[in-house]
Specification:
The protein is built from 15 helices and no strands. By secondary structure, the protein is an all-alpha fold. Helix 1 packs antiparallel against helix 6, helix 2 packs parallel to helix 6 and helix 14 packs antiparallel against helix 15. It is elongated.
Length: about 425
Protein backbone atom coordinates (compact mmCIF):
# COMPACT_ATOMS: atom_id res chain seq x y z
CA UNK A 1 0.00 0.00 0.00
CA UNK A 2 2.84 2.37 0.80
CA UNK A 3 4.39 1.72 -2.61
CA UNK A 4 1.07 2.34 -4.34
CA UNK A 5 0.65 5.65 -2.51
CA UNK A 6 4.19 6.65 -3.42
CA UNK A 7 3.59 5.87 -7.09
CA UNK A 8 0.42 7.88 -6.95
CA UNK A 9 2.31 10.81 -5.40
CA UNK A 10 5.05 10.59 -8.02
CA UNK A 11 2.43 10.79 -10.76
CA UNK A 12 0.83 13.80 -9.07
CA UNK A 13 1.98 16.28 -11.68
CA UNK A 14 1.10 14.15 -14.69
CA UNK A 15 -2.10 14.57 -16.64
CA UNK A 16 -4.80 12.61 -14.84
CA UNK A 17 -7.96 13.79 -16.58
CA UNK A 18 -10.69 16.04 -15.22
CA UNK A 19 -10.36 14.61 -11.71
CA UNK A 20 -6.79 15.90 -11.44
CA UNK A 21 -8.11 19.24 -10.13
CA UNK A 22 -9.41 17.45 -7.01
CA UNK A 23 -6.45 15.11 -6.58
CA UNK A 24 -4.82 17.48 -4.07
CA UNK A 25 -7.84 17.12 -1.75
CA UNK A 26 -7.58 13.32 -1.86
CA UNK A 27 -3.85 13.30 -1.12
CA UNK A 28 -4.34 15.89 1.64
CA UNK A 29 -6.90 13.56 3.25
CA UNK A 30 -4.39 10.67 3.07
CA UNK A 31 -1.68 12.92 4.49
CA UNK A 32 -3.88 13.83 7.46
CA UNK A 33 -4.45 10.12 8.17
CA UNK A 34 -0.70 9.50 8.10
CA UNK A 35 -0.08 12.42 10.48
CA UNK A 36 -2.67 10.99 12.86
CA UNK A 37 -0.87 7.65 12.75
CA UNK A 38 2.32 9.51 13.72
CA UNK A 39 0.53 11.19 16.68
CA UNK A 40 1.14 14.66 15.34
CA UNK A 41 -1.64 16.07 17.52
CA UNK A 42 0.35 15.27 20.67
CA UNK A 43 3.95 15.58 19.51
CA UNK A 44 3.61 18.48 17.05
CA UNK A 45 0.48 20.54 17.75
CA UNK A 46 0.91 20.67 21.51
CA UNK A 47 4.61 21.47 21.21
CA UNK A 48 4.04 24.46 18.91
CA UNK A 49 0.62 25.28 20.41
CA UNK A 50 -1.15 25.28 17.04
CA UNK A 51 -4.60 24.09 16.05
CA UNK A 52 -5.23 20.70 14.47
CA UNK A 53 -5.11 20.65 10.67
CA UNK A 54 -8.30 20.15 8.69
CA UNK A 55 -8.75 18.07 5.54
CA UNK A 56 -8.26 21.04 3.19
CA UNK A 57 -5.60 23.04 5.08
CA UNK A 58 -2.80 22.79 2.49
CA UNK A 59 -5.16 22.35 -0.50
CA UNK A 60 -6.76 25.80 -0.26
CA UNK A 61 -5.29 29.25 0.40
CA UNK A 62 -6.34 30.80 3.71
CA UNK A 63 -3.35 32.62 5.26
CA UNK A 64 -0.11 32.27 3.23
CA UNK A 65 2.19 33.41 6.05
CA UNK A 66 0.70 31.03 8.61
CA UNK A 67 0.47 28.15 6.10
CA UNK A 68 4.13 28.54 5.11
CA UNK A 69 5.25 28.52 8.77
CA UNK A 70 3.13 25.43 9.55
CA UNK A 71 4.50 23.74 6.41
CA UNK A 72 8.15 24.35 7.33
CA UNK A 73 7.63 23.42 11.01
CA UNK A 74 5.74 20.23 10.08
CA UNK A 75 8.45 19.31 7.54
CA UNK A 76 11.14 19.79 10.20
CA UNK A 77 9.19 17.60 12.65
CA UNK A 78 8.74 14.83 10.05
CA UNK A 79 12.46 14.98 9.17
CA UNK A 80 13.36 14.63 12.83
CA UNK A 81 10.94 11.70 13.06
CA UNK A 82 12.91 9.92 10.34
CA UNK A 83 16.01 10.15 12.55
CA UNK A 84 17.73 13.11 10.90
CA UNK A 85 18.72 16.32 12.67
CA UNK A 86 16.81 19.39 11.51
CA UNK A 87 16.12 22.54 13.48
CA UNK A 88 12.62 23.99 13.58
CA UNK A 89 12.63 27.16 11.41
CA UNK A 90 11.52 30.45 12.90
CA UNK A 91 9.15 32.99 11.38
CA UNK A 92 11.97 35.48 10.68
CA UNK A 93 14.23 32.98 8.90
CA UNK A 94 15.03 33.27 5.21
CA UNK A 95 12.33 31.26 3.35
CA UNK A 96 14.65 30.44 0.44
CA UNK A 97 17.26 28.80 2.65
CA UNK A 98 14.59 26.90 4.62
CA UNK A 99 12.99 25.53 1.44
CA UNK A 100 16.41 24.63 0.04
CA UNK A 101 17.29 22.64 3.17
CA UNK A 102 13.98 20.76 3.11
CA UNK A 103 14.37 19.87 -0.59
CA UNK A 104 17.97 18.71 -0.03
CA UNK A 105 16.77 16.29 2.64
CA UNK A 106 13.97 15.14 0.35
CA UNK A 107 16.42 14.48 -2.50
CA UNK A 108 18.67 12.51 -0.16
CA UNK A 109 15.68 10.32 0.68
CA UNK A 110 15.34 9.48 -3.02
CA UNK A 111 12.17 11.44 -3.78
CA UNK A 112 11.81 13.17 -7.16
CA UNK A 113 11.73 16.98 -7.01
CA UNK A 114 10.83 18.25 -10.49
CA UNK A 115 9.26 21.60 -9.59
CA UNK A 116 10.78 25.03 -8.77
CA UNK A 117 11.35 25.81 -5.07
CA UNK A 118 9.39 29.06 -5.42
CA UNK A 119 6.16 27.03 -5.63
CA UNK A 120 6.54 26.21 -1.93
CA UNK A 121 6.63 29.84 -0.74
CA UNK A 122 2.85 30.17 -0.89
CA UNK A 123 2.45 27.48 1.78
CA UNK A 124 -0.31 25.59 -0.08
CA UNK A 125 -0.81 23.65 -3.28
CA UNK A 126 0.00 20.26 -4.77
CA UNK A 127 3.76 20.71 -4.35
CA UNK A 128 3.46 21.40 -0.61
CA UNK A 129 1.21 18.36 -0.15
CA UNK A 130 3.62 16.24 -2.21
CA UNK A 131 6.62 17.19 -0.03
CA UNK A 132 4.75 16.53 3.22
CA UNK A 133 3.35 13.24 1.92
CA UNK A 134 6.83 11.98 0.98
CA UNK A 135 8.21 12.98 4.38
CA UNK A 136 5.26 11.30 6.12
CA UNK A 137 5.94 8.05 4.21
CA UNK A 138 9.57 8.12 5.29
CA UNK A 139 8.54 8.86 8.88
CA UNK A 140 6.15 5.86 8.90
CA UNK A 141 8.97 3.68 7.62
CA UNK A 142 11.30 5.03 10.31
CA UNK A 143 8.85 4.18 13.11
CA UNK A 144 8.35 0.69 11.54
CA UNK A 145 4.64 1.19 11.02
CA UNK A 146 2.81 -1.62 9.26
CA UNK A 147 -0.71 -2.68 8.53
CA UNK A 148 -1.92 -5.86 10.27
CA UNK A 149 -3.88 -8.48 8.43
CA UNK A 150 -7.61 -8.05 8.60
CA UNK A 151 -9.36 -10.52 10.93
CA UNK A 152 -12.85 -11.42 9.74
CA UNK A 153 -15.35 -12.62 12.39
CA UNK A 154 -16.56 -16.21 12.00
CA UNK A 155 -20.30 -16.35 11.59
CA UNK A 156 -22.14 -19.27 13.18
CA UNK A 157 -24.62 -20.47 10.62
CA UNK A 158 -26.31 -22.78 13.08
CA UNK A 159 -27.47 -19.84 15.17
CA UNK A 160 -29.56 -18.62 12.30
CA UNK A 161 -31.61 -21.84 12.45
CA UNK A 162 -32.18 -21.67 16.19
CA UNK A 163 -35.43 -20.30 17.48
CA UNK A 164 -35.46 -18.01 20.43
CA UNK A 165 -38.16 -19.03 22.84
CA UNK A 166 -38.79 -15.44 23.74
CA UNK A 167 -39.38 -14.63 20.07
CA UNK A 168 -42.27 -17.09 19.67
CA UNK A 169 -45.59 -15.45 19.18
CA UNK A 170 -49.02 -16.87 19.17
CA UNK A 171 -51.52 -16.70 16.43
CA UNK A 172 -53.77 -14.51 18.54
CA UNK A 173 -51.04 -11.85 18.94
CA UNK A 174 -50.36 -11.92 15.22
CA UNK A 175 -54.05 -11.53 14.48
CA UNK A 176 -54.24 -8.57 16.89
CA UNK A 177 -51.23 -6.93 15.20
CA UNK A 178 -52.71 -7.60 11.81
CA UNK A 179 -55.99 -6.05 12.88
CA UNK A 180 -54.13 -2.93 14.05
CA UNK A 181 -52.21 -2.81 10.78
CA UNK A 182 -55.47 -3.43 8.97
CA UNK A 183 -57.01 -0.34 10.60
CA UNK A 184 -53.95 1.76 9.71
CA UNK A 185 -53.87 0.38 6.20
CA UNK A 186 -57.60 0.98 5.77
CA UNK A 187 -57.05 4.64 6.59
CA UNK A 188 -54.20 4.75 4.10
CA UNK A 189 -56.21 2.90 1.50
CA UNK A 190 -59.06 5.35 1.93
CA UNK A 191 -56.66 8.16 1.14
CA UNK A 192 -54.65 6.42 -1.62
CA UNK A 193 -57.30 4.07 -3.00
CA UNK A 194 -55.29 0.84 -2.45
CA UNK A 195 -56.57 -2.65 -1.46
CA UNK A 196 -55.01 -4.78 1.32
CA UNK A 197 -55.26 -8.59 1.36
CA UNK A 198 -55.88 -9.55 5.03
CA UNK A 199 -56.01 -13.27 4.32
CA UNK A 200 -52.50 -13.15 2.95
CA UNK A 201 -51.26 -11.27 6.03
CA UNK A 202 -52.79 -13.83 8.38
CA UNK A 203 -51.04 -16.64 6.56
CA UNK A 204 -47.59 -15.08 7.25
CA UNK A 205 -44.99 -17.50 8.73
CA UNK A 206 -44.75 -17.53 12.53
CA UNK A 207 -41.08 -18.46 12.64
CA UNK A 208 -38.23 -19.55 10.45
CA UNK A 209 -38.73 -23.26 11.10
CA UNK A 210 -42.47 -23.79 10.71
CA UNK A 211 -42.96 -21.13 8.00
CA UNK A 212 -42.74 -23.64 5.22
CA UNK A 213 -45.21 -26.04 6.89
CA UNK A 214 -47.87 -23.37 7.53
CA UNK A 215 -47.68 -21.77 4.05
CA UNK A 216 -47.41 -25.08 2.20
CA UNK A 217 -50.49 -25.44 0.00
CA UNK A 218 -52.36 -28.76 -0.18
CA UNK A 219 -53.05 -28.54 -3.90
CA UNK A 220 -51.59 -26.68 -6.82
CA UNK A 221 -52.50 -23.00 -6.52
CA UNK A 222 -54.55 -21.66 -9.37
CA UNK A 223 -55.23 -17.98 -9.89
CA UNK A 224 -58.87 -16.92 -9.90
CA UNK A 225 -58.16 -13.26 -10.71
CA UNK A 226 -59.54 -11.85 -13.92
CA UNK A 227 -56.89 -10.37 -16.20
CA UNK A 228 -59.03 -7.29 -16.94
CA UNK A 229 -59.52 -6.59 -13.25
CA UNK A 230 -55.79 -7.17 -12.66
CA UNK A 231 -54.85 -4.65 -15.38
CA UNK A 232 -57.37 -2.18 -13.99
CA UNK A 233 -55.89 -2.56 -10.51
CA UNK A 234 -52.38 -2.14 -11.92
CA UNK A 235 -53.43 1.06 -13.65
CA UNK A 236 -54.80 2.37 -10.35
CA UNK A 237 -51.69 1.51 -8.36
CA UNK A 238 -49.15 2.43 -11.07
CA UNK A 239 -48.97 6.19 -10.25
CA UNK A 240 -48.25 5.35 -6.62
CA UNK A 241 -45.40 3.01 -7.56
CA UNK A 242 -43.45 5.67 -9.41
CA UNK A 243 -40.47 6.94 -7.45
CA UNK A 244 -38.81 10.18 -8.48
CA UNK A 245 -35.23 10.60 -7.36
CA UNK A 246 -33.92 14.12 -7.18
CA UNK A 247 -30.40 14.35 -8.56
CA UNK A 248 -27.81 15.40 -6.03
CA UNK A 249 -25.18 17.82 -7.34
CA UNK A 250 -22.61 16.39 -4.91
CA UNK A 251 -23.19 12.74 -5.88
CA UNK A 252 -20.07 11.24 -7.41
CA UNK A 253 -22.13 8.96 -9.65
CA UNK A 254 -23.62 11.92 -11.49
CA UNK A 255 -20.13 13.38 -11.87
CA UNK A 256 -18.87 10.11 -13.35
CA UNK A 257 -21.79 10.02 -15.80
CA UNK A 258 -21.05 13.60 -16.77
CA UNK A 259 -17.37 12.77 -17.20
CA UNK A 260 -18.19 9.79 -19.44
CA UNK A 261 -20.63 11.92 -21.46
CA UNK A 262 -18.08 14.71 -21.84
CA UNK A 263 -15.43 12.20 -22.85
CA UNK A 264 -17.77 10.74 -25.45
CA UNK A 265 -18.58 14.22 -26.80
CA UNK A 266 -14.88 15.11 -26.86
CA UNK A 267 -14.10 11.90 -28.75
CA UNK A 268 -16.81 12.59 -31.33
CA UNK A 269 -15.73 16.20 -31.73
CA UNK A 270 -12.07 15.18 -31.88
CA UNK A 271 -12.65 12.75 -34.74
CA UNK A 272 -14.25 15.53 -36.80
CA UNK A 273 -11.81 18.20 -35.73
CA UNK A 274 -8.74 16.02 -36.27
CA UNK A 275 -9.45 15.68 -39.99
CA UNK A 276 -9.86 19.43 -40.34
CA UNK A 277 -6.69 20.04 -38.34
CA UNK A 278 -4.78 17.54 -40.49
CA UNK A 279 -5.92 19.32 -43.64
CA UNK A 280 -5.02 22.65 -42.14
CA UNK A 281 -1.62 21.26 -41.12
CA UNK A 282 -0.94 20.05 -44.65
CA UNK A 283 -1.94 23.41 -46.13
CA UNK A 284 0.21 25.31 -43.64
CA UNK A 285 3.16 22.95 -44.32
CA UNK A 286 2.87 23.48 -48.07
CA UNK A 287 2.56 27.23 -47.64
CA UNK A 288 5.63 27.29 -45.38
CA UNK A 289 7.59 25.26 -47.93
CA UNK A 290 6.59 27.70 -50.69
CA UNK A 291 7.54 30.65 -48.51
CA UNK A 292 10.90 29.02 -47.67
CA UNK A 293 11.71 28.33 -51.32
CA UNK A 294 10.69 31.88 -52.26
CA UNK A 295 12.91 33.28 -49.54
CA UNK A 296 15.87 31.25 -50.78
CA UNK A 297 15.28 32.49 -54.33
CA UNK A 298 15.04 36.12 -53.20
CA UNK A 299 18.14 35.75 -51.06
CA UNK A 300 20.09 34.38 -53.99
CA UNK A 301 18.88 37.15 -56.29
CA UNK A 302 19.44 39.97 -53.81
CA UNK A 303 22.67 38.71 -52.26
CA UNK A 304 24.89 41.20 -54.14
CA UNK A 305 22.56 44.08 -53.35
CA UNK A 306 22.49 43.05 -49.71
CA UNK A 307 26.28 43.08 -49.61
CA UNK A 308 26.34 46.55 -51.13
CA UNK A 309 23.68 47.70 -48.69
CA UNK A 310 25.68 46.38 -45.73
CA UNK A 311 28.83 48.12 -47.04
CA UNK A 312 26.89 51.36 -47.43
CA UNK A 313 25.58 50.99 -43.88
CA UNK A 314 29.11 50.50 -42.56
CA UNK A 315 30.34 53.56 -44.47
CA UNK A 316 27.41 55.59 -43.23
CA UNK A 317 28.19 54.57 -39.66
CA UNK A 318 31.84 55.64 -40.10
CA UNK A 319 30.78 58.97 -41.61
CA UNK A 320 28.38 59.59 -38.74
CA UNK A 321 31.14 58.85 -36.26
CA UNK A 322 33.50 61.28 -38.00
CA UNK A 323 30.77 63.90 -38.09
CA UNK A 324 30.20 63.48 -34.37
CA UNK A 325 33.91 63.91 -33.63
CA UNK A 326 34.23 66.96 -35.91
CA UNK A 327 31.03 68.55 -34.68
CA UNK A 328 32.27 68.11 -31.12
CA UNK A 329 35.46 70.10 -31.95
CA UNK A 330 33.47 72.81 -33.72
CA UNK A 331 31.19 73.18 -30.74
CA UNK A 332 34.13 73.57 -28.37
CA UNK A 333 35.78 76.15 -30.61
CA UNK A 334 32.49 78.04 -30.98
CA UNK A 335 32.24 78.23 -27.21
CA UNK A 336 35.81 79.60 -26.93
CA UNK A 337 35.08 82.14 -29.69
CA UNK A 338 32.03 83.35 -27.82
CA UNK A 339 34.05 83.88 -24.62
CA UNK A 340 36.77 85.82 -26.53
CA UNK A 341 34.11 87.96 -28.24
CA UNK A 342 32.55 88.88 -24.88
CA UNK A 343 35.95 89.85 -23.45
CA UNK A 344 36.71 91.98 -26.56
CA UNK A 345 33.38 93.80 -26.28
CA UNK A 346 34.06 94.53 -22.60
CA UNK A 347 37.54 95.92 -23.40
CA UNK A 348 36.15 98.08 -26.20
CA UNK A 349 33.53 99.55 -23.85
CA UNK A 350 36.21 100.39 -21.27
CA UNK A 351 38.42 102.09 -23.94
CA UNK A 352 35.50 104.18 -25.15
CA UNK A 353 34.70 105.34 -21.61
CA UNK A 354 38.34 106.32 -20.99
CA UNK A 355 38.66 108.20 -24.33
CA UNK A 356 35.46 110.11 -23.75
CA UNK A 357 36.55 111.07 -20.24
CA UNK A 358 39.95 112.40 -21.56
CA UNK A 359 38.48 114.72 -24.23
CA UNK A 360 35.54 115.97 -22.17
CA UNK A 361 35.88 119.21 -19.93
CA UNK A 362 32.97 118.33 -17.76
CA UNK A 363 35.14 117.28 -14.80
CA UNK A 364 36.91 120.68 -14.72
CA UNK A 365 33.61 122.51 -14.73
CA UNK A 366 32.42 120.30 -11.93
CA UNK A 367 35.59 121.11 -9.93
CA UNK A 368 35.05 124.86 -10.37
CA UNK A 369 31.46 124.58 -9.26
CA UNK A 370 32.57 122.62 -6.24
CA UNK A 371 35.17 125.27 -5.30
CA UNK A 372 32.61 128.07 -5.59
CA UNK A 373 30.22 126.09 -3.45
CA UNK A 374 32.95 125.60 -0.86
CA UNK A 375 33.77 129.34 -0.80
CA UNK A 376 30.12 130.30 -0.27
CA UNK A 377 29.78 127.73 2.44
CA UNK A 378 33.00 129.00 4.08
CA UNK A 379 31.71 132.66 4.08
CA UNK A 380 28.43 131.55 5.62
CA UNK A 381 30.34 129.64 8.24
CA UNK A 382 32.50 132.74 9.08
CA UNK A 383 29.38 134.89 9.52
CA UNK A 384 27.84 132.30 11.80
CA UNK A 385 31.06 132.13 13.85
CA UNK A 386 31.13 135.98 14.23
CA UNK A 387 27.49 136.09 15.34
CA UNK A 388 28.13 133.31 17.82
CA UNK A 389 31.24 135.10 19.23
CA UNK A 390 29.34 138.41 19.62
CA UNK A 391 26.47 136.64 21.36
CA UNK A 392 28.90 134.94 23.71
CA UNK A 393 30.71 138.19 24.53
CA UNK A 394 27.47 139.96 25.29
CA UNK A 395 26.36 137.12 27.52
CA UNK A 396 29.65 137.31 29.47
CA UNK A 397 29.40 141.08 29.95
CA UNK A 398 25.83 140.81 31.08
CA UNK A 399 26.77 138.17 33.58
CA UNK A 400 29.65 140.30 34.84
CA UNK A 401 27.32 143.30 35.27
CA UNK A 402 24.85 141.17 37.20
CA UNK A 403 27.63 140.09 39.56
CA UNK A 404 28.73 143.67 40.21
CA UNK A 405 25.18 144.85 40.88
CA UNK A 406 24.77 142.08 43.29
CA UNK A 407 27.88 143.25 45.19
CA UNK A 408 27.22 147.09 45.00
CA UNK A 409 23.92 148.02 43.52
CA UNK A 410 24.08 151.81 43.14
CA UNK A 411 27.67 152.42 42.00
CA UNK A 412 27.48 149.41 39.89
CA UNK A 413 24.41 150.73 38.19
CA UNK A 414 26.08 154.07 37.54
CA UNK A 415 29.10 152.39 36.13
CA UNK A 416 26.97 150.20 33.95
CA UNK A 417 25.14 153.26 32.60
CA UNK A 418 28.48 155.02 31.95
CA UNK A 419 29.74 151.99 30.06
CA UNK A 420 26.78 152.03 27.62
Amino acid sequence: MMSEERKRDENLFEDGGPGQLYMSFVIMDDLLDKLKLLNYDKEFCRELKVKFLNRHYFALQTNPGEQFFIFTALSAWLIRTTGRSFETPQEDDDPNSTISNILDVLRNMGAAVDFPPSRLKSGFGTEVIYVLNCLADQALKAVHFGWNKASHPVEDLEEENLIDDSAEVTLEKIEEEMLIEDDDDDDDDDEEGGILDLEGLRNLPLSRTNAAEINKPDDIMESTTDSAEWKLEVEKVLPQLKVTLRPDAKDWRSHIEQMHQHRKDIGESLSVTRNQLDKLHLEITRTLEKIGSREKYLNNQLEQMLLEYRASQDQLAQTKEQYRSVSGGVTERSRILGQITEELEQIKQEMEERGSSMTDGTPLVNVRKALARLKSETAQTDVRIGVAAHTLLRAKLKEKGNLQRAADPLPAAADFDSVF
